[in-house]
Amino acid sequence: MAEVLEKEYVGRLAPSPTGALHLGNARTFMIAWLRARSLGGRVLLRIEDLDHPRDRPGAAACAVEDLRWLGFDWDESCVQSERHDIYRAALERLGDLVYPCVCTRRDVEAAQSAPHDGDQLRYPGVCRGRFASWDEALAYKSATCGGQGSPSARLPCWRFRVEPGTVVDFEDVFAGLVSQDVSATLGDFPLARDRDGAGYTLACVVDDLLTGVTEVVRGDDLLAATPAQILVARALGAEPPRYCHVPLVVGRDGRRLAKRHGDTRIAAFREAGAKPEEVVGMLAASCGWAMRGEKVSLSGLLPRFNLASVPHAPFMV
Predict the structure, then answer these.
(1) Of 9, 22, 34, 117, which is least packed with CB atoms within 10 Å of its CB?
(2) Which domain holds residue 153?
(3) What does pTM read for this prediction?
(4) Residue 246 — φ and ψ, nearest 5°?
C-alpha cells in the first residue's frame, strides 16, 4: 500500500567535509534519496562544515562530485558555515535554557557515577549559574588552560538545560519506538562550541526546521542523539521532523568504516575505473533491491525501493 502523506515530503543529504565520502555514507544517502524521490518529495543538500578543526580543505567539493557521479541530484543546497546569523538568532530565542560551560570531556568523564562506554556522557550541571556570559566563561577558560590543547578545546561550549525527569518518546520510522530519559542519560547536553551557537546539535535542528525537512534519514549511530535534538526543536516552538535511522556499513570487525578497513572511498572506486552502476548495484544488493553483481543506476532503483526490505543488521564489507 502506498504511503499517504499529509504534506510534501522533504528529505536531506548532509555530508560533512571531515573526510572523503565512503561506502557507508553513500548507502545511507542512497536510502535517503530513494525514500524522498519515491514519495514524490524534494531533496535538500546541506554541507555540515561547522566542525572546523576536522574539516579538510576541498572535501566538500569532492563530496558533491562523488554524489553527482553516483547519480544523486537535489532541489536546493546550503552551507552551514554561511548561516551564523541564523544560529545566533536561535540561540537568543533559547534564552535561559542555555548557558556557557568550561568543563572538558575529562572533567565530565571523571564525574560519571558508573563506568561509561561510548560517545554519550551525562553532564551533571557543574556550570549551571556559574558564569554570567560567554565572555566571562571564555576568560576563565583562557586563564586556566594555559594555551594547551586545540583552539576549539580552549573555547567554552553552550549547554542546554535538562530538568530532572525529562523523558522523550518518539516513533522512529525504521527503528520503532524509542524512549529516553535525557536527564538520566545526557543531562545538560552541549549545543555548540561557538559564541554564535554554530555547532552540530543546534545548527542541525535549526536547519531542519527552517528548510522544512519533514523526515531525517540517517545512520543509526545518531539515534541516541535524537531525543536531545527533539528537545531543542520543541524549545524553539516547533515540532521536529520524523526520524528514520538505518543501519551502518561496518568492517569485518563490526566497527564503523575507517582506514583500517581498506580504501572504501567513493573516489577510490572512481579512480580504479569502476562505473557508478557497479557501486550503486553493490549497495542496492545489501538492501535487497538488486542481485549481487548487478549493475543498476540510482534512478533505476526507484521502482524497486522498499524501506521494509532493508536488513536491520549492519551491512558488513
Answers:
(1) 117
(2) 86-201
(3) 0.92
(4) -110, 155
